[in-house]
Amino acid sequence: MTERPLLLDEDLPREAGDIADACASVPPSSGYRAMLQTLFRGKMSGAAIALVIRQVVVMALSVGSSVAVSRWLGPEVVGRFAILIFVTQGILGYFGDLGLKAALIRKRGDLAPTELASAQKVILGISITFAVVIGALLPVALRLVKLGPENYFPAAVFLVLLIVRNQRMVPLALLERSMRFNVVSAVEAAESLIYTVLLAALAFLHKGIWCYGGAMGCRDFLGRLAFYLIARPPCLRFSWASIRPHVGFSLVYQGGSLLNMATLAFPPIMIARLLGKNAVGYVSWASTLSLYPLVICNAMARIYLPAFSNAASDPTLLRSRVEKSLRINASIAWPACAVLVSLSTPIIALVFTEKWFPAQPLLYAYCVTAMFLAVGVPLSELFFAQDDAWFNLRLCLLWTIPTWTLGTYAVIHYGLFGFAIFQAALQSFWLLAFFHAREPKGLRVFAPLREPLILSAALVLGNLLVIRSMAISSIYRLAVLLAVEGVICSLFLVRMVMSWRTATGPAEASSALS
Prior knowledge:
By secondary structure, the protein is mainly α. It contains 24 helices and no strands. Helix 3 packs antiparallel against helix 16, helix 14 packs antiparallel against helix 15 (277-290) and helix 17 runs parallel beside helix 22. It is globular. The two termini are 29 Å apart.
């Protein structure tokens, strides 16, 4: 029985204007007329829209679940859950699939049934092994975090649920390879709805820690079943030889995840020991607030690896997709970060209260981090698609080692202000990724960022002028100013999106629509 190839070049048609956009030395400043076709034509555009809608739904449901938890559950239950999740799923969540999902997505050519079934069994074996090891260490771990023996059973349940959740990796790889993000988004939005409804109902019934266990259990089992029924991956074969070519990439990919985890662990470990929990609270607040400009960019990040891997054999198409990704991400995140930084003083005073002003330098630093992340993530996925995972690993090392050495020195001698300066300066290592990405002839990595940078600088200067000329003394004035700048940023984003296909002629447009 022959199977249809899982992802061919015709499965992901070239968007009209890809080639013309890549060949043009500078995007034209006029001719932005095909907005509807630009927004909705092509699988890459459809996938981005589906993921953005999914992100909006998940965020709305997350707000609902947070309200339910805050009303009907006490901080003791929420704290227990946070600790148990960290102990049980914090490590296994990073290593559950050993990077095999990404390896399957980036593979060029077809995926063999034996390859898929073998990957599924390896992921299951790895998940069970890690769960057993963590389970055996639970008595020690729970004593360290000062939780009693009554938490053993809930912790074991959370370990089992993560094993179940990891079994979606192969079906997800199949769906993401074929760019069926509308299906993925629908299932994940349904999962969030199930989780929110059950969590709220069980919280109303005062079921304690089992509010989370019941909601997560239904979500994970139903999600796993849905993805299996949709993707239908083979399950009854095994051959180590079929997945051996993926092991090298998977280990490097997982090594990068481990280094990222070590970097992120610096504030709760080192800053907590040196400056106390209040300092960690300031860092956490600033980093969380700076992530809001990245919400849409993070939603679209799952597109890049399959889209770039599919275009790897066509340098012109690949260059076009990389440049478009850089342009759209910078157009979304950079103006938002500029507004957040330049209006941080009235935002903190009127929204968060003055007690958070000590974290303002950290907010500046983490906004710089967010700006580099917005355009750095597509480049990282490009390197993975080009079999250059080692460069990403070296880049992670360049973040982790200085963080635990120079970062520690900065915290000891200069406190949170020193850490803020260090955090902002650390992002300069992203420039190595930009210069490395330019090695393929013709790839422009700085030109797509010119207009977002100009708008961001204009917003900063304009806001500083507004703050100096008039007092933003009420939240209503702040809301009006944010609304006006939101309209400006939205119009600019639409202009950027429309510029994708300005060089498209009628013939190319009709072929893209067919």
